[in-house]
Amino acid sequence: MRRFVTAWSRPMTKMDDKKWLRVEEAAVYANIGISLVRNLIKRGQLPAIRTGRYYVIDRLDLETCLQGLKTGPPNGPRKKAKAQKA
Domain 15-63 adopts which CATH fold? Predict the structure, then answer.
């Protein structure tokens, strides 16, 4: 019987000492979902390096990306266009 190992069942090392994090570790570190981390990488908002089967993320790049997400888009929130009456 094959046993699947997930990010939650692996013993975690102290992440403050690690410079590079895998996607699962980055999600746990940032307290966000794994799919959000993958989407950020796919959209190019989070720099990552592919090493074989895994992506690795620099912890400082992750923190910078998260700061950008908290502050919102650079132009501020979008305003809805008002419907024009004919």
Answer: Arc Repressor Mutant, subunit A (1.10.10)
